Automatic annotation (TrEMBL):
<feature type="domain" description="Snurportin-1 m3G cap-binding">
    <location>
        <begin position="109"/>
        <end position="286"/>
    </location>
</feature>
<dbReference type="InterPro" id="IPR017336">
    <property type="entry name" value="Snurportin-1"/>
</dbReference>
<protein>
    <recommendedName>
        <fullName>Snurportin-1</fullName>
    </recommendedName>
</protein>
<keyword id="KW-0539">Nucleus</keyword>
<comment type="similarity">
    <text>Belongs to the snurportin family.</text>
</comment>
<dbReference type="GO" id="GO:0005634">
    <property type="term" value="C:nucleus"/>
</dbReference>
<dbReference type="GO" id="GO:0061015">
    <property type="term" value="P:snRNA import into nucleus"/>
</dbReference>
<dbReference type="GO" id="GO:0003723">
    <property type="term" value="F:RNA binding"/>
</dbReference>
<comment type="function">
    <text>Functions as an U snRNP-specific nuclear import adapter. Involved in the trimethylguanosine (m3G)-cap-dependent nuclear import of U snRNPs. Binds specifically to the terminal m3G-cap U snRNAs.</text>
</comment>
<keyword id="KW-0813">Transport</keyword>
<keyword id="KW-0694">RNA-binding</keyword>
<dbReference type="InterPro" id="IPR047857">
    <property type="entry name" value="Snurportin1_C"/>
</dbReference>
<feature type="region of interest" description="Disordered">
    <location>
        <begin position="1"/>
        <end position="38"/>
    </location>
</feature>
<keyword id="KW-0963">Cytoplasm</keyword>
<dbReference type="GO" id="GO:0005737">
    <property type="term" value="C:cytoplasm"/>
</dbReference>
<dbReference type="Pfam" id="PF21974">
    <property type="entry name" value="SPN1_m3Gcap_bd"/>
</dbReference>
């Protein structure tokens, strides 16, 4: 009976489809990789078989042909490669934007973790874990001799010189437009340090399509070499630092959960080793909290107090539906037209609601009904609605939370099942 009670909470089949979406995300990545490899093989094969005459200059009175005209059935770059380059160029260009345009663009670029509703399969073999620093999540972009950090809502945090590639105007720095760096960081106010939790681009090389395993290796091997982790100086205003990252086995999880770190913890981050860096919410990156590893497990209101009832922020769609920030969005309800006209609300507005006594109802793993009470609009600095996983995590924290014991138990169960499968393979 005790074992059954221990396993039940972290399965949560009635409220979560995270595992299915994790599998879909990994399958999509694998297909994109196969498509890119196929395009590269076709291009290499075609170039090798072209006759030298096809590359000779045309007669002066003839219109020269481009390479794409010589091989019209091929794309010179795969869609993934072009998207890769576009993402990098967009970030560099957007770092020069100002005001509303900058905030709107940068608000959509960070890879945002979902909240852990259930424990992933193969957590102890396919995932990393680390203690998340408390602070302000931001993109840090170094380019053209300066460094800029922008918050999750797109607003600028700092403009400063740094030791990152092309991050300061010094005699030693490269002024090439191709030398730039993009880091995913958390700015920790108490020690004025940027803790780097991911690397998107380094010295002009894109890491968007690299696995988490490679990005973390590159991050830990390259960042220290630049001097960015040194104490601040005239040409390096803020210190950068990596975070201790562990394989998410029993020992690694315990180290991340209980081990000392030089910053204030704000929960644990779990990262799938095979995931690529993608903007928006992803089930391949998960955040989890409890009272032992975070000061703020339950969301507080504008006064810093825990409200009596859970509050959620949803986006009003053109048809009156109330949606989360997910893609595709999850619908929590609908406002009638009379109420919308009376209050002067418009499509795209973010609205704050309280979950009333009726709570949330689920059928076959999907949200069926939410008892919502309208409170008004959230702070204007808010960039987007809550994600579905955040709402559900906050809901379960108030009712039946996913505790650290459940995560440990799930890992033990996975290990036992893996050992049984191995034993069967050996017997076969």
């Amino acid at each position: 009976m005790a074992t059954h009670e221990l396993r039940r909470p972290f399965k949560r089949p009635a409220i979560s489809d995270q595992q299915r979406r994790r599998e879909i995300s990994l399958q999509r990545q694998a297909q994109n990789r196969r498509d890119a490899q196929h395009q590269a093989r076709c291009l290499a094969s075609t170039i090798l078989t072209l006759q030298p005459a096809q590359y000779e200059p045309a007669e002066p009175d003839l219109q020269p042909q481009s390479e794409t005209e010589l091989i019209p059935e091929l794309e010179i770059e795969s869609q993934e490669q072009r998207r890769d380059l576009r993402d990098i160029d967009d970030v560099i260009q957007a770092s020069r934007l100002k005001g509303v345009e900058a905030r709107q663009w940068f608000a959509k670029q960070l890879m945002l973790p979902e909240w852990m509703i259930d424990v992933p399969e193969r957590l102890n073999t396919d995932w990393y874990v680390f203690a998340r620093p408390a602070g302000k999540r931001c993109f840090v972009v170094s380019s053209n001799g300066t460094t800029i950090s922008r918050l999750r809502n797109g607003s600028m945090l700092h403009r400063f010189p740094s030791a990152l590639p092309n991050g300061a105007r010094t005699s030693k720095s490269s002024q090439s437009g191709q030398s730039y760096c993009i880091l995913d960081c958390i700015f920790h106010e108490p020690d004025q340090t940027y803790y780097v939790i991911d690397m998107v681009c380094w010295a002009g090389m894109s890491l968007y399509e690299c696995t988490t395993e490679f990005r973390f290796f590159w991050l830990n091997s390259k960042l220290v070499e630049t001097g960015a982790c040194d104490v601040p100086s005239s040409y390096h205003k803020f210190r950068f630092s990596t975070v201790p990252i562990y394989n998410c086995d029993q020992e690694g999880l315990n180290a991340a959960y209980t081990g000392p770190v030089p910053y204030v913890k704000d929960g644990l981050l779990f990262c799938n080793k095979h995931a690529h860096y993608q903007s928006g919410n992803t089930p391949l990156m998960l955040v989890w909290k409890d009272e032992n590893c975070s000061q703020y497990v339950i969301d507080t209101d504008s006064k810093g107090q825990v409200p009596n009832k859970q509050q959620v922020v949803l986006e009003l769609l053109f048809d009156g539906k109330l949606a989360t920030s997910d893609d595709p969005p999850v619908i929590f309800g609908c406002l009638n037209e009379d109420f919308i006209q009376k209050t002067g609300l418009q499509a795209g507005n973010l609205l704050r609601f309280a979950i009333s006594d009726g709570g949330l109802s689920f059928v076959d793993g999907k949200l069926e009904k939410a008892d919502l009470h309208y409170l008004g609009k959230p702070n204007r600095a808010r960039a987007f609605a809550d994600s579905y996983s955040k709402v559900i995590f906050q809901y379960t924290v108030r009712h039946s939370s996913l505790r650290i014991e459940h995560i440990y138990a799930s890992m033990s169960l996975s290990s036992e099942q893996g050992n049984k499968i191995s034993d069967l393979d050996m017997a076969g």
